[in-house]
Task: inverse folding
């Protein structure tokens, strides 16, 4: 499986030299190309503006046949990110049945950034936050901003 | 207690509701204590009071024991007679509680209803430790354990089957608190009244369901019937479709055509890459081409197909596309004839409808068939990437029933096609052919093509609502026009990405994966589809396999 490893290298070099806007990609451990540190700036048009979120990408050994495992290392008030130590993220394209090898990490990063702008309230991990987003947007924004400030990476 | 001794002489009846046992000839088959008719006649070898099958020697038991030992801080306080005390074991401290959930008592009621069948798991014995183990197929096992003891004969008193409400509430806290991953699903109960045992088992079961190896701790509490439904649907989902499409058969993989990379595949830039390994391919290198005309290194595509039978790029099932491919080959001779037997669905198109674009009668998309001898379809491998977006566009168009088209008509019954529809496989290549024409600078030709498409669609009884076809084509041109006019590699990549992103978004918005061509592949389409339908009503569809 040398070929997919080459792909990991290629993807990393592409993402690190030419990252999506507002993002920064580095390796957690210089010797391990399969664990990425992705810093995502809170998009300007979102309550996360001004924040910076550390997101961990772990590329499985059989990447790209299996999706990368993505977790938020920075606490974030968001209905698609679990509010616990794990920080699991729910992104459609990462689900085992939606993943396809032609998808790339860069797209995942972009998708995460997209989620920061528009959360997917119909498929939440944190039901209450989703409900709040739908029903009391002001309160949601307030809390999201508060957390963004408090936990900035 | 003596009444519980099974005697063979007089048939006894056991009540699942209150565990009362009586002689049938005395009280009949309705429980004299609680009026329940959820009863069973006790027979030798089929005693409902016997333990359910116990599987004891799995890891969970050890873990449980250790944790029991470590967890004495959570042991019930001394007022044990008060009722039940649950100590969630492992990493879920009592502090990790969910917010107050007033509806939960009501929900619990429905849980009980759901779990009636588990009542028999608990039997009236003096002091028991039970472990329950359910094999959930691919999702792993579900195990939990209850320990029961009671102090005196009052335990058999049917008048006191209810749990103290306070205890329910405190239990609910633990039961429904969203927990972290890896919480062992075992629960311990000590010193509880036996009357509560049934509920105890149910709760432990439900908790195992919610927090256990199935990973349902995501939003892991149920505050309404909807939530309950969701949880059940997720169970279906996880059991049946955990990792997406099924594997392709060995035969199917072996029979995939290979071909050397030719100039068409490379395009003008003389460069192309396998989207799996992102490695470049050289002219003449032999690659495997799927029937949807996406090609990959043979070594790259094989491990994927061994897991999933879909194209890594457009996710079309290789079996389906092969069927379409074969069908097309079989039908090649008929396409240009004046019969539409092959299409099976259309009415004859009056010859007056023939426009400047020659079009044979037949099913809707076949209007393009005559543009190009069908044999050449396979020799135009640079086209097929258009296949996917076109496909989707067509499907989307079809599925948008009841929307007025631009002629002010209303279309009904956006028809779902089976996967071997003429849209699939190489025929779509001809779409792309026509698309070439459409996307050329000749806008007249473009208008004509669109009009023709609409007219033929109207004619052919397929009722494809194509009111916004032009938009679609625009979109497709932006999204997928890349292979036809291949430029340098970088550009290709960029476009690939943009396509894929769009593709992703589209899937997400279109109740992801609820695609017709996937349906046939599932082993249990009814169940899955139900769960999926349910999901798509609530969110983005098939989604929550939730591996995380």
Result:
């Amino acid at each position: 499986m040398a070929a997919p490893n080459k792909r990991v290298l290629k993807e990393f070099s592409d993402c690190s030299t030419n990252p999506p806007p507002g993002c920064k990609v580095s390796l957690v451990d210089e010797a391990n190309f399969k664990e990425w540190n992705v810093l995502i700036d809170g998009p300007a048009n979102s309550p996360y503006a001004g924040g910076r979120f550390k997101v961990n990408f772990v590329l499985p050994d059989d990447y790209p046949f299996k999706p990368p495992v993505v977790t938020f290392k920075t606490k974030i008030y968001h209905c698609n990110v679990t509010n616990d130590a794990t920080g699991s993220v729910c992104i459609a394209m990462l689900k085992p049945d939606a993943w396809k090898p032609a998808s790339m990490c860069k797209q995942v990063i972009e998708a995460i950034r997209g989620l920061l702008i528009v959360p997917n309230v119909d498929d939440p991990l944190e039901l209450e936050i989703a409900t709040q987003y739908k029903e009391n947007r002001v309160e949601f924004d307030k809390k999201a901003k508060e957390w963004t400030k408090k936990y900035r990476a | 207690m003596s009444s519980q001794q099974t005697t063979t002489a007089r048939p006894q009846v056991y009540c699942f509701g209150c565990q009362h046992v009586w002689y049938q000839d005395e009280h009949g088959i309705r429980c004299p204590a609680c009026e329940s008719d959820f009863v069973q006649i006790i027979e030798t070898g089929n005693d409902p009071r016997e333990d359910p099958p116990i599987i004891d020697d799995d890891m969970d038991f050890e873990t449980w024991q250790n944790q029991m030992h470590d967890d004495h801080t959570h042991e019930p306080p001394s007022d044990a007679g008060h009722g039940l005390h649950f100590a969630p074991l492992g990493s879920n401290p009592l502090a990790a509680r969910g917010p107050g959930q007033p509806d939960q008592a009501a929900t619990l009621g429905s849980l009980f209803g759901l779990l009636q069948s588990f009542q028999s798991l608990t039997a009236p014995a003096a002091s028991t430790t039970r472990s329950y183990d359910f094999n959930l197929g691919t999702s792993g096992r579900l195990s939990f354990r209850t320990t029961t003891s009671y102090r005196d004969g009052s335990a058999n008193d049917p008048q006191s089957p209810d749990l103290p409400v306070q205890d329910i509430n405190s239990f609910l806290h633990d039961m429904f608190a969203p927990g972290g991953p890896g919480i062992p699903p075992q629960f311990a109960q000590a010193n509880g009244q036996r009357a509560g045992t049934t509920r105890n088992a149910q709760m432990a079961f439900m908790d195992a369901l919610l927090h256990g190896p199935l990973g349902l701790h995501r939003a892991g509490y149920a505050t309404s019937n909807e939530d309950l439904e969701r949880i059940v649907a997720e169970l279906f989902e996880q059991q049946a479709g955990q990792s997406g499409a099924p594997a392709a058969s060995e035969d199917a993989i072996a029979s995939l055509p290979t071909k050397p990379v030719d100039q068409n595949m490379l395009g003008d830039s003389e460069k192309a890459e396998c989207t799996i390994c992102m490695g470049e391919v050289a002219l003449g290198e032999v690659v495997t081409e799927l029937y949807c005309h996406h090609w990959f290194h043979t070594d790259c595509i094989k491990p994927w197909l061994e897991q999933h039978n879909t194209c890594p790029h457009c996710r079309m099932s290789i079996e389906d596309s092969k069927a379409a491919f074969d069908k097309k080959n079989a039908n090649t001779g008929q396409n240009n004839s004046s019969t539409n037997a092959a299409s099976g669905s259309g009415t004859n198109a009056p010859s007056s409808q023939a426009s400047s674009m020659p079009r044979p009668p037949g099913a809707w998309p076949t209007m393009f068939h005559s543009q190009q001898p069908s044999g050449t379809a396979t020799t135009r491998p640079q086209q097929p990437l258009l296949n996917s977006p076109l496909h989707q566009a067509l499907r989307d168009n079809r599925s948008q029933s009841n929307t007025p088209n631009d002629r002010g008509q209303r279309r009904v019954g956006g028809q779902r096609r089976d996967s071997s529809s003429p849209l699939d496989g190489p025929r779509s290549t001809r779409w792309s052919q026509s698309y070439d024409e459409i996307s050329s600078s000749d806008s007249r030709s473009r208008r004509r093509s669109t009009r023709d498409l609409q007219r033929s669609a109207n004619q052919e009884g397929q009722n494809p609502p194509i009111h916004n076809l032009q938009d679609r084509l625009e979109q497709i041109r932006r999204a997928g026009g890349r292979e036809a006019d291949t430029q340098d590699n970088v550009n290709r990549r960029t476009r690939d990405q943009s396509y894929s992103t769009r593709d992703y978004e589209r899937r997400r918005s279109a109740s992801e994966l609820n695609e017709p061509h996937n349906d046939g592949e599932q082993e249990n389409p009814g169940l899955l589809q139900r769960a999926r339908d349910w999901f798509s009503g609530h969110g983005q569809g098939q989604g929550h396999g939730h591996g995380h």
User: Anything to note?
Assistant: Chain A touches chain B through 43 residues (CB under 8 Å). The first strand of chain A starts at residue 23 and ends at 29.
